[in-house]
């Protein structure tokens, strides 16, 4: 950084406000769609893991191994198959959410008290109906706790996708490094944090509205 | 599928060629750099996370503050932070360490806190009733009982740090990420995949070490399959 330069140039932010809003929208889409896809995979998989306990350890190990592949590398591996597109960012991020979501779905189902399960069966509920109408709603607070962690980390990881040109706000991070100009980097980093925190707060609100009987419940991962 | 097998073969060739195992650009040197970054940041993160986690878990005060700080730290984009500190403060290992510590503290802090807080109050009362002081209750009862969760937090933190330390290479620092960033720049696929393979293996080793550690240090009474991995 040049010595005579201020850390933040507010006029730059003023000039780019419209563009920043566009990139924020892209960033949010790239960060949140993977969580949605992750849920679509984790909920059925979690139900299976809860029902047949023996599938759980191998599934969890597989998810953990995927999680340990650096995002930088996983993006590169997918470039080969999906090209330089948004899919190349979203597929790895979806895979990352699984290691947080699956255990939370299984723990949530396991937190259903046995008498409740038996009562549902005694009332003549079929297994499928019991899972859908009784067990899943009770599991919601714990599942949402997992969604919070997945969403926050997914949003902050999107930036790395900039290395294949699809990183939303990450664009300003690489731009700032190339120009040796900190303002865009600070702006983008702060915006990403704000996006993550606002999303987290909205999810807490959603959990309270969805499960008013379980205030503040739900384990943190 | 064939393509996939070819890739594995490529990685195998790359890993076994003697050229990769020599000099500043070789795997041993990059691995050492990577382990240095990861190790130092984990030590700092453990000191911070464990201290505050035990303190808050034991006294029961400040739970809200811990949750907020941990959340805030989790929202920091590591990539942005590394690049930012490098641009403002110049190229050194400090930015990487700062970013990695910020990444590793939340899982350690939260798991320590939840572990200690989760100890059955009756057990705690029994310990007090036997005449244990606050410190004794913490060290002889709460820590041993919270150990499975604490170790889980450390494992998650260690894996995240090992995987994320690759970002250090982007603004021009060392570590295993160099292979990935250089490979990207030179359009050398073999280098990218080879470098990633080493990081993945490292992460798997970390996972195995923590699993073994849990078997050794957790008291036999708490060993069960009941503790979720």
TrEMBL record, chain A:
Keywords from the named record: Membrane, Transmembrane, Transmembrane helix, Transport
> Would you kindly state one Gene Ontology biological process term found in this protein's UniProt entry?
glycine betaine transport
**Lineage summary:** Bacteria, Bacillati, Actinomycetota, Actinomycetes, Kitasatosporales
Q: Which GO terms describe its cellular component?
A: plasma membrane
Name the protein family.
Belongs to the binding-protein-dependent transport system permease family.
Which membrane topology describes this protein? Answer: Multi-pass membrane protein
Question: Where mainly found?
Answer: membrane
The record's listing under InterPro entries reads: ABC_transp_perm/SBD (IPR051204), MetI-like (IPR000515), MetI-like_sf (IPR035906)
Q: Which PROSITE patterns match?
A: ABC_TM1 (PS50928)
Organism listed in the record:
Streptomyces liliifuscus
Q: What is this protein called?
A: ABC transporter permease subunit
Which stretches make up the ABC transmembrane type-1 domain?
A: 24-203
* Statement: the UniProt record of this protein carries the keyword Transmembrane helix: yes
Is Membrane one of the keywords?
yes
Q: Which residues cross the membrane?
A: 30-49, 61-81, 134-165, 185-206
TrEMBL record, chain B:
A Gene Ontology BP annotation from the UniProt entry: glycine betaine transport
| Keywords, ordered alphabetically | Membrane, Transmembrane, Transmembrane helix, Transport
- Its primary localisation, in coarse terms, equals membrane
Protein localization: Cell membrane; Membrane
UniProt keyword annotation of Lipid metabolism present: no
TM segment ranges = 35-57, 78-105, 145-170, 191-213
Q: Which membrane topology term applies here?
A: Multi-pass membrane protein
SUPFAM superfamilies per record = MetI-like
Q: Any idea where the ABC transmembrane type-1 domain is?
A: 31-210
Enumerate the CDD domains for this protein: TM_PBP2 (cd06261)
Which InterPro entries does its entry note? Answer: ABC_transp_perm/SBD, MetI-like, MetI-like_sf
Supply the Gene3D superfamilies for this chain: MetI-like
Provide a GO CC annotation, any one.
Answer: plasma membrane
What family classification does the UniProt entry report for this protein? Belongs to the binding-protein-dependent transport system permease family.
Please report the name of this protein according to its UniProt entry: ABC transporter permease
Source species: Streptomyces liliifuscus
């Amino acid at each position: 950084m040049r010595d005579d330069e201020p850390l933040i140039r507010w006029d730059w932010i003023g000039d780019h406000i419209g563009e920043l809003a566009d990139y924020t929208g892209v960033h949010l889409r790239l960060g949140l769609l993977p969580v949605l896809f992750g849920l679509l995979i984790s909920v059925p998989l979690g139900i299976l893991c809860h029902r047949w306990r023996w599938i759980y350890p191998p599934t969890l190990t597989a998810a953990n191994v995927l999680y340990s592949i650096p995002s930088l590398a996983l993006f590169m591996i997918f470039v080969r198959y999906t090209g330089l597109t948004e899919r190349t960012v979203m597929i790895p991020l979806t895979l990352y959410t699984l290691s947080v979501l699956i255990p939370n779905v299984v723990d949530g189902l396991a937190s259903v008290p046995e008498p409740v399960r038996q009562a549902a069966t005694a009332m003549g509920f079929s297994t499928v109906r019991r899972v859908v109408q009784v067990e899943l709603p009770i599991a919601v607070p714990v599942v949402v706790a997992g969604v919070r962690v997945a969403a926050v980390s997914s949003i902050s990881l999107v930036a790395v996708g900039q290395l294949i040109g699809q990183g939303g706000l990450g664009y300003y991070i690489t731009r700032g490094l190339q120009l040796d100009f900190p303002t865009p980097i600070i702006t983008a980093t702060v915006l990403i944090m704000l996006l993550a925190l606002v999303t987290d707060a909205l999810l807490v609100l959603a959990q309270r509205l969805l499960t008013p009987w379980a205030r503040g419940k739900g384990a943190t991962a | 599928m064939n393509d996939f097998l070819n890739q594995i073969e490529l990685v195998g060739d790359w890993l076994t060629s003697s050229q990769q195992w020599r000099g500043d650009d070789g795997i041993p040197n990059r691995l050492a750099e990577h382990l240095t970054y990861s190790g130092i940041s984990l030590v700092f993160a453990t000191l911070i996370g464990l201290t505050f986690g035990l303190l808050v878990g034991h006294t029961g005060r400040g739970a809200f503050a811990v949750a907020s700080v941990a959340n805030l730290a989790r929202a920091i984009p590591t990539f942005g932070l590394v690049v930012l500190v490098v641009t403002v403060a110049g190229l050194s290992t400090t930015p990487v360490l700062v970013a990695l510590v910020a990444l590793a503290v939340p899982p350690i802090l939260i798991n320590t806190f939840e572990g200690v807080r989760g100890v059955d109050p009756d057990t705690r009362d029994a310990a007090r009733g036997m005449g244990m002081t606050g410190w004794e209750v913490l060290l002889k009862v709460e820590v041993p009982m919270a150990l499975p969760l604490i170790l889980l937090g450390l494992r998650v933190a260690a894996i995240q740090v090992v995987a994320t330390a690759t970002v250090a290479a982007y603004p021009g620092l060392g570590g295993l990420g160099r292979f990935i960033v250089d490979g990207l720049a030179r359009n050398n696929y073999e280098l990218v995949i080879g470098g990633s393979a080493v990081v993945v293996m490292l992460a798997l080793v970390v996972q195995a070490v923590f699993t073994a550690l849990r078997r050794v240090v957790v008291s036999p009474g708490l060993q069960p399959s009941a503790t979720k991995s």
